[in-house]
Design a protein that fits this description.
- This protein has one domain (10-156): 3-Layer(aba) Sandwich (Rossmann fold).
- Helices cover 36% and strands 14% of the residues.
- The chain has seven helices and five strands.
- Strand 4 (103-108), helix 5 (112-117) and strand 5 (127-129) form a beta-alpha-beta unit.
- Mean pLDDT is 79; it is low at 1-11 and 159-171.
C-alpha cells in the first residue's frame, strides 16, 4: 500500500469544541483528545464557543462544555448579542440552533443540587463528572459520536412546573 492509499489524518479527524472557563481544563481536554486523534477547537467561555460554532468553516462534530461558566464580569442580558456569556446548557441550545448535527457532552465538578442552585439542569445528555480519567473522556466522546445528535426541543423541554431554558443570563 502506498502513501497515496492511506487517508490523510486531517481528512478523518472529527472536530470538537472544548469549552471551560478554566484554561487548564480546556488545555487538558485538548491534549487528551488530540492524542486520541481528534481535532480540538478550544474556548474559554461561551461567547468564544458560539463564535467558533458560527464561523468555523468545516464541520463540528461535538461540543464538550462545562455547565457552570461564570462571565468575566457581571452584566445584564440583552437579546441583541449574538455571542453572549451563558451557562453550558444554554450554550448547547444556541450551538444546536447553529449546527443541527452537533453532539453534546456536559461536564462539571458540581453535583446536581449545586447545578440547580445556578438554575442549570443536566438533562439526559452525556455527562462527564470532574475530575475525570483520560480514558473516561475519550470513551465518552467516542460513544457520544456514535449516537444521533440531540434536538433543540429535547434540551428546552423541561418537566412540568420547571421553567424552560430561555435567553442567557449575562452578555
Amino acid at each position: 500500500m502506498s502513501n497515496l492509499d492511506v487517508a490523510s489524518p486531517q481528512s478523518t479527524k472529527q472536530t470538537i469544541v472544548a469549552v471551560d472557563d478554566d484554561t487548564a481544563i480546556v488545555h487538558l481536554c485538548a491534549t487528551i483528545l488530540e492524542q486520541a486523534g481528534f481535532s480540538v477547537l478550544p474556548a474559554t467561555n461561551s461567547s468564544e464557543a458560539l463564535k467558533l460554532c458560527k464561523n468555523h468553516p468545516g464541520p463540528i462534530h461535538l461540543l464538550l462544555t462545562d455547565l457552570v461558566m461564570l462571565p468575566p464580569e457581571f452584566s445584564f442580558a440583552s437579546g441583541d448579542n449574538e455571542f453572549p456569556y451563558v451557562h453550558g446548557h444554554e450554550l448547547a441550545v444556541r450551538a444546536l440552533r447553529m449546527r443541527k448535527d452537533l453532539r453534546v457532552i456536559f461536564m462539571s465538578g458540581n453535583i446536581d443540587q449545586d447545578l440547580a442552585g445556578y438554575g442549570i439542569r443536566r438533562g439526559g445528555l452525556p455527562f462527564l463528572p470532574k475530575p475525570f480519567e483520560h480514558q473516561t473522556l475519550v470513551t465518552l466522546v467516542q460513544q457520544t459520536l456514535q449516537e444521533p445528535p440531540p434536538s433543540v426541543e429535547s434540551l428546552t423541554a423541561g418537566p412540568p412546573g420547571i421553567p424552560k431554558v430561555g435567553d442567557g443570563w449575562v452578555d
